Amino acid sequence: MPTWIIATRNRGKLAELQPLLAGAGIVAIGLDEAGVVASPEEDGIEAFETFEANALAKARYFAARTGRPCLADDSGLRVDALEGRPGVRSRRFAEDNGVPISAHVDEDAANNDALIDACWNSGWAPPWPAHYVCAAAYSDATRDECALGRTDGTILPDRDGSGGFGYDPFFVSADLGVSFASASRDAKARVSHRARAFSQLLTILGADTSSNGAR
């Protein structure tokens, strides 16, 4: 059974992706489990203007660094009232709005506060139409591939649910009718942008998923 690396240290993201990949017969481990020590240069990988370019850059970087097949994604939230922001800056939205992020600051909470403030200041009334986008990328010594996934919904001004991560407590899925933070993991996995992107990526890779074992 092939073993691939998922280029993330985010436990929530791993919890979503590992069951999906296991269903395709792929053992997937995160960077920490693979023994990849965090490096300051990692912060500069996602420096591009599109989700696809960022995901591919991350997959290529860690595939080269580890010598193993690598999966990566770049995902974010696009809000109509904010003209598509935060987009590729979703993880850094609070910083972009003057909130310094440190080890003592809850990054998700800071980003959510910045998002809701920006939505109220947009002049649009809630609920605010939005969609999540994810680019899923694969890289090994011989091949790079990328696929996109999207899921639609709205942003509500009040938190709903305690699950998920990122903007999930404020994002109400059009497919599910509830926030991603209050949906079950299985329900979210059926409709999420990340699940759709990685399912499409696995389809693109096709039979190659059975031959790219650990190196």
- Computed over alpha carbons, the radius of gyration is 17 Å
How do the strands line up in the largest sheet?
2-1-3-4-5-6
Structural class: alpha/beta
What's the helix-strand series? EHEHEHHEEEHH
Average pLDDT, rounded to a whole number, is 92
Q: Outline the low-pLDDT stretches.
A: 207-215
Termini, distance in Å? 12 Å
How would you sum up the global shape? Answer: globular
Q: What is the count of DSSP helices, taking H or I runs of 4+ residues?
A: 6
Largest sheet: 6 strands, mixed
Estimated helix fraction: 25-40%
Q: Determine the strand fraction and express it as a percent band.
A: 15-25%
Structure, explained:
Helix content is 32%, strand content 21%. The protein contains 6 helices and 6 strands. It has a 6-stranded mixed sheet. Helix 1 packs across helix 6 and helix 5 crosses helix 6. The longest helix is centred in the N-terminal third of the chain and has 16 residues. The radius of gyration is 17 Å and the shape is globular. The two termini are 12 Å apart. The C terminus is likely disordered.
Short description:
32% of the residues lie in helices and 21% in strands. The protein is an alpha/beta fold.
Q: What is the strand and helix layout of this fold?
A:
Elements: E1 3-6, H1 11-23, E2 27-30, H2 51-66, E3 70-79, H3 93-96, H4 107-121, E4 128-139, E5 144-155, E6 171-173, H5 185-191, H6 193-205
Parallel strand pairs: 1-2, 1-3
Antiparallel strand pairs: 3-4, 4-5, 5-6
Helix pairs in contact: 1-6, 5-6
Defining key terms:
32% helix, alpha/beta, 6-stranded mixed beta sheet
